[in-house]
Amino acid sequence: MTIVDLSVVVINWVQPLSMLPSSLRVLRLSGCNLNTTLSSLFNSSSTLVSLDLSYNSLHGPLPNELLGNMTSIEQLLLRSNDLSGGIPRTLKNLRNLDELDLLGNDLSMVQSLSMLPSSLRVLDLSICNINTTLSFLLKYSSNFTSLVSLDLSNNLLHGSIPDGRLLGNMTSLEQLLLWDNDLSSVIPGTLENLHNLEFLDLSYNQFSDEIAELIEKLPHKVQSLFLYENNFTGSLASCIAHMSSLRVLDISDNNLVGTIPLGMGKLSNLSMLDLSYNHLDGTMIEDHFASLIKLKYIYLNNNSLTIVLDPNWISPFKLEEADFSSCNLGPHFPAWIRGQTDITFLYMSGAEIADRMPDWFWHVMPQLQYLDLSHNQISGVLPMSLEFMSAASSINLGSNRLEGGVPKLPPDLCYLDLSRNYLSGPLPPNLGVIPLKKLLLSNNLISGPIPSSMCNQLQSLLILDLSNNHLLGELPRCWTSSKSSKANHNNLKPVSSQLYIISFSNNNLSGEFPWFGLSCPQLTFLDLSYNNFFGNLPTQIAKRLPMLSFLLLRSNMFSGHIPIQLSKLNNLQVLDLAHNNLSGTIPPSLVNLTAMTTITRTSFDLIILNGTIAYDDLADSLVFDLSVTMKGQHLEYYTNISLLMVNLDLSSNYLTGEIPEEIGALARLINLNLSKNQLIGNIPETIGGLLSLESLDLSNNELSGQIPSNLSALTSLVYLNLSYNNLSGRIPTGHQLQTFTDSSIYEGNVNLCGPPVSKDCSGNDTILDALPEYKDEHDMSSFYLSMGLGFATGFWLVFGPLLLKSTWRTAYFIFIDNTYDKIYVFMVLNWARLFARIKKK
Fold first, then answer.
1. What ranges do the domains of the chain cover?
2. Which of 528, 557, 513, 575 is nearest to 653 (CA)?
3. Which residues lie closer than 8 Å to 514 by C-beta, 6 or more apart?
4. Residue 823 binned pLDDT confidence (cut-offs 50, 70, 90)
């Protein structure tokens, strides 16, 4: 027997492989769940030519003696184990070793490759935690004249790529992979002696060299060049035309500037071109694509390029993937797209297209899977059905000017964005396809009720956004319990274990709080604001929706008290109950809202960690509409910055009682709005603990007492409104409060004094300000006693003589009567004269 292949068979061997024949030449035990050391597996291994123990749990160091005895070994594959330490020097004696694969082990002790045999043709030491300079690692290794493939990617290598004295003798090298390290520069001319180099990957490093210098020195035989995710600078030089063998060129995500040279159009072997995420500008014309007959993948997105092609131009290539997002392709819809019948991925978002969607577009690309034409000004009417786009998985036509109704969808569609258009009419009853994960129809003119068929859709949806439309009526009842039996709400079965964003805001929907929302246990964002919902808020909300981070119920008709159970929502960072009919007091237990007090993982983080939702599904969905009233204005967030918002808005209700002192613990609050309620008592001193606060509105209440001086410690505060309360005393000064010079923020508090209001705090106005200076009860008693004695003394000095002496009293009242008569006669005469003048006119 010369070959034993038990790959992927779980055998859990821990004893030596003594039962195997001594003549064995090939042994493959890849993925067999072996959990032991290498030395414990073998008694003898001198006849082995090929050994594959990849994807196991082998641990411990590479055994010196065992490896030294493998004198016949040509192929040693040990990738993805738990081996550690360094490379034994005995490996240098393995003169027949052709391929060594140690990927994914911990070889942090490796400092040099000088102990490896010169016979090696393939060496893979990627993801091995090697931490040294590349120069030191390759020192004394210049005898690798047979090496064809060297992979040192995903390590901790740093410094520069060494000069030709270390790499120059590797004349057979065809593949060099150094991606995902911390390398910073390429010494000019380092790579030009590698005449057989075909594949070079320097991506995910810190290179900041001039791109033209690097390309000019590369061997012309290079076919695949990966330089993405670096800091390469400068512009692409015309020397690119000499790289005639190039098949793949990826320089994305660097700092390239300038125009794309016409020489790019001469690379007739090029199949993939990725220049995305740079700072390129200028205009591309037909000559830039003239000879790209093999081009299948092109990514020019996130540059400032303008692409001007003749409407009758016929492209020489058949694309499979293309991304022109943020390039200028307009104003007309690019006609050359019609010839791309093989395309599967087409992104032209933000391409400045201001044209009518051509009728042919929906029929000429039968293999199209991913389409993004969002953020243009494309007009026209959508077809009634998109079912003929049978391969489509994702369609994004958001932020355009499309009209018509919501079409019937392709059978395998997972993502649909038709938001921010002019779609009208009702939602079709047969809208849904079960695979659909994201349905975004916000900001349209869609009317009528939400069809009950939507319940079937909830089984697969992650996101449902129907906000800013003209929908009306009650939400569909997506459960089996009786309409009138609230007792059955405790027995609700989950409608969807994945649905985590629901937005129905700004419609005409009505009814009680939608109970189907309480049967979506992963829900993190619920927006029902600006509708006509009524009734009490459910007390089960914390139990049913433990992941909830955003609860927006603004501008409805909800009544009753704020449920204290809301304080159990540890992830809640936005609570907006403004403009309802809520009564009662503010629950002090809101202090338990952990996400408003300390920085914690968001619900979105937890969902990813739990594996509920793939990151790719989540990434596109963190950009959602969030409407917040703060800083005295209505703000719309349409970006993932909304994840940073921490907001508590209970304004425009009928809340009574005092502001709980516990509110000062909500240190992450950015916006606090308690205005237009019936709150009484003092502003709590603890409010000075809201160090992240940017907007504070306590206006239109019945608050009294002084303004806490520690408000000046809120250095992030940019908006303050305390108007129309019963506040008194001197307005605090210093630090942040000095910036508030608009007196209207204190309007309606007649007993406030000091800048910026006009009332001066001097004289009697300072009495209230002086009150806090009395430190104890004895001082306060003395103050009030002195004030009382002063009042009594003044009273008797004025009125005492009048009471005791009759002649003075008679004279006083005669004086008063005469004064009254004079004033009365004066007023009568003047009114008569004024009336006479008016009659004459």
1. 805-841
2. 557
3. 475, 528, 533
4. low
